[in-house]
Amino acid sequence: MAQSSPVAPATGRLTEITADDIAALGVGTAIFGTGGGGAVYTAQITVENALRTHGPVPLVAVDELGPDDVVILMSGIGAPTVGIEMLSATGQIHALLAEAERLLGRSVTTLMAAEIGGSNGVQPIGWAARLGLKVLDADGMGRAFPNAAMVAMNVAGVPCEWAVQSDVVGNISVMKTIDLSWLERHARALTVASGSICIGAHYPMTAETVKGAVIEGTVSAAIRVGHALMGSSDPVAAISAELDARVLLTGKISDLDRRTVGGFVRGSVTITGTGADRGRLQRLEVQNENLLVLEDGEVLVSVPDLITIIDAETGHAITTEMLRFGQRVAVLAWACDPIWRTPRGLELAGPSAFGYDLPYVPFEGAHR
Hints:
- The structure is a single chain.
- By secondary structure, this protein is α+β, with helices and mostly antiparallel strands.
- It folds into 2 domains: 16-218, CV3147-like domain (CV3147-like fold); 234-367, Beta Barrel (CV3147-like).
- Helix content is 28%, strand content 28%.
- It has helices at 22-32, 40-54, 80-83, 92-104, 119-131, 152-156, 180-193, 218-230, 235-243, 343-349; strands at residues 16-17, 57-60, 70-78, 110-113, 134-139, 163-166, 172-175, 197-206, 215-216, 246-261, 264-273, 281-287, 289-295, 298-302, 306-311, 328-334.
- The strands form 2 sheets. Strands 1, 2, 3, 4, 5, 6, 7, 8 and 9 form a 9-stranded mixed beta sheet that branches.
- α1 (22-32) packs across α5 and α8 packs antiparallel against α9.
- It is globular and about 60 Å long.
């Protein structure tokens, strides 16, 4: 039987992550992935193995960071469809960290996930175990987004001085761009040249600069969501309650248009309602992540609010690359972190940021 991980007595907060937590974390990050972030299964296996080999990883809150701490984001970048088949190379993260520390001139103490969604929310735990680092109970998105500029630190105005990227054959690239939009262009081009999957490290921050610039508590939140799903006889209802989410439609996938273009998965998914939803039809627009839900010409939900396709019986999220014709699914939606509803947040990650000439209408979840 899995052992409960240690919690802080005063707050009940999770203080370390063990191999026994990774199944729940994987389930939760897949839900937060909104279709993207990469399939979690391979990441889950490698991270569990890393924790069993190297021991538990300390999980620290933002207010627990000290003056000597340095936080850096580490994540995969590329097309999730490719990430299923192309695994990282031995030593890839060590070379990446060494270059980052050379640029910093000091040691990194703490890793943070760029996004809590999908495999990018799981893999940093294994990387931290192998590198002997702590993990920050926070991330840069509170979900998954397909663009490097779509991070909370950019909303908060914290600059990113450089980024380092590595591929499976050993190439290391250092990028010093004028802003994160240019970083996205350069990083994506390098990723495509490297087979459409790489690992990157960027956004070094201190205990001071991280405050108010990240979305806190998301690692432990993902674990809670995973436990809610795994421990319930009605998993769809359980995760809906945990997230204050709403099921928009239950049905089957009746059409799927999916292609990998320029390092992204793009396309649309059509779901035909079944049971109580018979006669209804919804289309989801996809760019790595699920961006819009449309029904009868009306936008029901849009980014930056969260949209996840889940198995109608098990409640497990189905990532973009794993969608198949005929799957029985439910469409789940819930409200994003408030930082994304600010003018700057909507500029970076609202519908217009993805090329849609549509106003953002806040989605109020289960209470709507």
